[in-house]
């Protein structure tokens, strides 16, 4: 797998660090609207090519896969352009602004016969797979809780009168799409889609959610998902069953350590996951790519589409609308 990246933020740097650690993948080129940023990033990771023209980049046949890490609202357009050129695509979360956009991109990827992946760390982490295997040990689930709270430096800019992309509805921003989406991937990855979902946010005067609580109504239990960019907190996931509970240390995007509490005692699981939480997802994509495993890729897309369905429903339940909703 040879990759060209779109974007120059910290998440791209983290992705390129993962590329260095995963066999079977390399970065051929980086794209930025400004040549200086592209050259700086390329030099940092010893990447051969730089691009400032999207059309030129997508016409280049020296690579096969595009990694998209632009502002959320631009995901759809960039992914669509890449797919139309026959490129495989890895797109950062949230996949798109709406379910309709994602369904269109999935259909296009099938038509073109190329892979389309959502770069979501949670479901690929070794500790998540352990939780899936151990869930039955705590009996019938009654309560599920998750919290991912991380005070954003951009929140200070928002309070000072600026409008950073992540707090801008025009760019499909907000705490739900930026942080709480990891909690939704965790819960839906374990339990599937809920019967209903709702979202109660704290909103800035511009209408964007800076923090909030989403409630997922399952048959027999509720799951609460807290995502906050205007406070700090203890990040965790807690799954409470009639025979015990599973305590995840760390947020749903890292799952640092897992404790399983039952009448038999406490089992602590720490597999020594890679410090870069993007390594596991990239390794999974490379494995699917090399095997040409279309079924595995479609299974991941089905999961992403389910998450997007309920992410959009949660957002709209709170009256948070994006420009993409009007298309």
UniProtKB/TrEMBL annotation:
Stretches assigned to the GFO/IDH/MocA-like oxidoreductase domain: 136-246
Ranges of residues in domain Gfo/Idh/MocA-like oxidoreductase N-terminal: 2-117
InterPro entries: Gfo/Idh/MocA-like_OxRdtase_N (IPR000683), GFO_IDH_MocA-like_dom (IPR055170), NAD(P)-bd_dom_sf (IPR036291)
Domain of life: Bacteria
Pfam families membership: GFO_IDH_MocA, GFO_IDH_MocA_C3
Signal peptide (from-to): none
GO molecular function: nucleotide binding
Protein's name in the database: Oxidoreductase
Organism: Salinicoccus halodurans
């Amino acid at each position: 797998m040879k990759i060209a990246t779109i974007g120059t933020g910290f998440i791209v740097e983290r992705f390129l660090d993962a590329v260095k650690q995963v066999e079977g993948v390399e970065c051929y080129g980086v794209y930025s609207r400004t040549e200086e940023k592209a050259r700086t990033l390329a030099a940092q990771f010893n990447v051969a090519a730089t691009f400032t023209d999207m059309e030129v980049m997508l016409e280049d046949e020296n690579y096969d896969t595009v990694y998209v890490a632009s502002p959320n609202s631009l995901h759809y357009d960039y992914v669509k352009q890449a797919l139309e050129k026959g490129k495989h695509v890895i797109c950062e979360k949230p996949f798109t602004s709406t379910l309709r956009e994602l369904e269109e991109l999935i259909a296009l990827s099938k038509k073109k016969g190329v892979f389309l992946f959502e770069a979501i760390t949670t479901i690929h982490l070794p500790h998540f797979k352990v939780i899936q295997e151990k869930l039955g040990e705590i009996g019938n689930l009654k309560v599920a809780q998750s919290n991912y709270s991380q005070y954003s430096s951009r929140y200070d800019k928002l309070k000072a009168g600026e409008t950073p992309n992540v707090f801008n509805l025009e760019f499909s921003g907000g705490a739900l799409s930026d942080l709480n989406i990891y909690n939704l991937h965790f819960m839906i990855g374990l339990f599937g889609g809920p019967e209903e979902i709702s979202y109660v946010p704290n909103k800035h005067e511009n209408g964007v959610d800076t923090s909030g609580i989403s409630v997922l109504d399952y048959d027999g239990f509720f799951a609460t998902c807290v995502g906050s960019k205007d406070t700090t907190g203890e990040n965790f996931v807690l799954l409470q069953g009639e025979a015990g509970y599973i305590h995840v240390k760390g947020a749903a995007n890292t799952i640092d350590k897992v404790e399983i509490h039952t009448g038999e005692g406490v089992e602590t699981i720490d597999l020594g996951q890679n410090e870069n939480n993007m390594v596991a997802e990239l390794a999974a994509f490379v494995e699917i790519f090399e095997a040409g495993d279309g079924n595995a890729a479609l299974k991941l897309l089905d999961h992403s589409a389910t998450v997007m369905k309920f992410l959009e429903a949660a957002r709209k339940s709170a009256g948070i609308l994006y420009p993409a909703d009007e298309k």
